[in-house]
Amino acid sequence: MKASVQYGDFKGTASADISDELSSGMDNLQDIANYFGINTDRFKVVGISIYGTKDFSILLFCVDSEQNTDDKERIVKILCDCEDETNILDTLFKRFNVVLHSRHDEKYSLVDNYDEEANFEDYHEID
Question: Residue 67 domain-assigned?
Answer without folding.
Answer: yes
